[in-house]
Amino acid sequence: MSRLLEYLKVALANLKTNKKRTFLTMLGIIIGISSVIMILAAGGGAKNMINEELNSVFSGMIYFYIEDTGKANMKYFTEDDIRYICDNAGDHLYGATQNSSTLPAKANTIRGNYDIYVDSGTPAKEHQSTDKIVKGRYFNFSEYNSAAPVCIITEALAKKLFGTTDVLGKNFEINVNDTSNEVTIIGIRETKQSNGLGAALTGKQTDLIEIPYSVMERKFGFGEYESEVILILADNEYSLECSERVQKLFEAKHNVRETGAFGIESWTDAAKQYDAILNIITLFVAVVAGIALLVGGIGVMNIMLVSVTERTREIGIRKSLGAKTKAIKRQFMAEAGLITLIGGLIGITTGLLLGKIICMAIGAKPAFSILSILIASAFSCGIGLFFGIYPAKKAAMLNPIDALRHE
Amino acid sequence: MENESRKPIIHLTDIRKNFFIGTPNELKVLKGINLTVYEGEFVAVVGASGSGKSTLMNIIGALDRPTSGGYVLDDVDVISAKDSELSGIRNKKIGFVFQTYNLIAKTNALRNVEMPMLYAGVGRKERTQRAEELMELVGMGDRMKHLPEELSGGQKQRVAIARAMANDPAIILADEPTGALDSETGRLVMDIFHKLHKEQGKTIVLITHSPELAEETERLITLKDGEIVGEREGHGHDDAV
After folding, report:
1. What average pLDDT does chain B have?
2. Which of A3, A6, A322 sits opposite B91 (nearest CB)?
């Protein structure tokens, strides 16, 4: 142990005598390590952020679709089918809603004309978003059935249209599909602070109102019957159980004996695909950073070789004083190791810092994993030792006579 | 004879050293050297350049291996020693003093003196204490923390002598130790060798081409074209200096 300390001390003294060169050599390692850590942290952070964002939009949803219209004995889900699911939802399931598009619309208020978006569905749609209803309530089935012109508005849009969120009971005119109708606000949905990247990925709108699908269909003349409905879950954990239950419900209702009539796709399946893509991107960039690290390692080897040549005479002197081959080897290994160790430490710090800055810029929480730091550290030490071996061996194998004569 | 009762430290038998072996310009540098140096002796090896002095010194110093012949140093067979054992021999049995000092740059005088002890595995405290004593012995007690580049030639050589003494070796091997010094400084360095010889009973082999300095030793070995051509007693050295 004390011997090792001795080697490190001598190595440190040698590195100090050539500060500029030592630093430049370290720079390669610093850049390599910091990029690996930065990319893993920022990549992990972005992944978490996107997952969270996608989760807030898509979790709790199952796409239930007709796989084979022949076997299912139906071409699309009717109003009656959707109502049937809502009425027989059972545990952990709120019901179903139409897989309707979010439509662009115009809103007219005393403050002016605004571009907004309109979503429509059944009362079960209330639970599709994780954003809560903070004032008022969602529309119910009696309003749904009678196509009452009511709407739920987001906090953000309320502020935009009326300058306040105190808008319950207010009426305003919306124009969808070239048809204008007046709607009454009965509920306000919170607007969570959303980040740009996630919103761009999910297409989530903040200037949004929600109206009953029946209003959209009967008052605005925009109805589309789809071979797909969305099941709204109360608890993601029971997605399989719920979808199987709905499947059985429909098989009984439509007298389907064969399997393969209906299909399901849950958010978990989609999330896995997103994860896989993000993982591949992170891995790819990390590999590129790893190459930077490798180049840094070769830099260490290069400088150690130069150092061996420069210090051939010193090696000869040390050998004449009784330094064993092993001792010379260890000394050069200690120097290479120290360069990578210090470079590695600086690189880790820089990487963590840069990762944090990048995550702050894209609005994600950095995901620093101890494992990635440990791997990067081990890798940097490994590089130091691996690329130090050859120059160290070369130094150690020098013939003392030749080394002493070297000018 | 008086010599028979003394213990041989260096025992060379028929040492030969050839270079460029197997090529048309094969060079026979040492052609069968037989030499015995006894414990406590101060011996000078003299000869013109190209006579094989340095090659002989390298072989005695275990820096190089002879092509053939026998070499026993302080009861250790050097010929059969492995490389790692040669390092040990250089470390513990031999103290080198070179013409060009060969101090490690950017390392202060004291640390230079400590170095052989470092390789011998001597503990830190003991190492520093012994190095300080040796620096005092060569009259460099006030320049321990100086770097080699801050010292004059004579001062550097005195540090080198202190370093050669570090592990209390069986012999001190000095290759033209005054060759790069002016006569006054050279005198000072020679006096240190005499002091080590007289007061500590060190065995010293001095390689020089200066007849005057060689004359101060107890025995002169003359080398010519790789052979010992003469051997006689020196005039010795006055204590008075």
Report:
1. 90
2. A322
pLDDT of residue B62: 92
A320 contacts B96? CB cut-off 8 A: yes
Query: What does the alpha-carbon distance between residue B62 and residue A84 come to, in Å, rounded to a whole number?
Result: 100
A171 three-state secondary structure: strand
3-state secondary structure A91-147: CCEEEEEECCCCEEEEEEECCEEEEEEEEEECHHHHHCCCCCEEEECCCCHHHHHCC
Is B63's CB within 8 Å of A404's CB?
yes
| B88–A320 CB contact, under 8 Å | no
| A292, two tokens | 């930077």
- What domains lie within chain B, and their CATH numbers? 39-65+83-233 (3.40.50.300)
Residues A142 and A233 in one domain: yes
Query: Do A137 and A170 reside in the same domain of the chain?
Result: yes
Q: How far is A384 from chain B (nearest CA, A)?
A: 24
pLDDT of residue B13: 95
Could you list the residue range(s) of the whole structural domain that residue A393 is in?
2-53+273-405
Give the best-scoring range by mean pLDDT among A310-314, A340-344, B154-158.
B154-158
pLDDT band at B72 (very low <50, low <70, confident <90, very high): very high
Task: For residue A323, give the nearest of B58, B87, B123 by CB distance.
Answer: B87
Cross-chain Cβ contact B88/A404 below 8 Å: no
Q: What pLDDT is stored for residue B241 in this prediction?
A: 43
CB count, 10 Å around CB of A397? Answer: 12
For residue B114, the chain A residue with the least C-alpha distance is A321
The residue-averaged pLDDT of A13-21 equals 83
Interface check for B83 against chain A (CB to CB < 8 A): the answer is yes
Q: What is the reported pLDDT for A51?
A: 76
Contact B84 A404 (CB under 8 A): no
A220, two tokens: 């605005």
Closest partner residue to A322 among B58, B90, B102, by Cβ? B90
Judge whether B81 is closer than 8 Å to chain A, CB to CB: no
Contact A323/B58, CB-based, under 8 Å? no
Distance of CA B3 to the CA centre of its chain: 21
Type of residue numbered A212: P
| Residue A196 pLDDT | 57
* B128 touches A: beta carbon within 8 Å: no
CA-nearest residue to B105 within chain A is A314
Question: What is the reported pTM?
Answer: 0.68
Is residue B161 exposed (0-12), middle (13-18) or buried (19+ Cβ within 10 Å)? buried
Give the total number of structural domains in chain A: 2
Average pLDDT for residues B14-21, to the nearest whole number?
92
The stretch A108-137 carries a mean pLDDT of 88
The tokens describing B132, both together, are 């300080």
Say whether B116 and A322 touch across the interface (CB within 8 A).
yes
d(CA A35, CA A340): 15
Beta A179-189 vs A171-176: how paired, if at all? antiparallel
Domain endpoint, select from A219, A237, A265: A265
Answer whether residue B22 shows pLDDT above 50.
Answer: yes
Rounded CA separation A407/A312 (Å): 8
Q: Which of B87, B94, B103 to mutate to test the interface with A (most CBs of A within 10 A)?
A: B87
Contact B167/A at CB under 8 A:
yes
In the structure, what pLDDT confidence band is assigned to residue B97 with cuts at 50, 70 and 90? very high
Are residues B102 and A317, on separate chains, in Cβ contact within 8 Å? yes
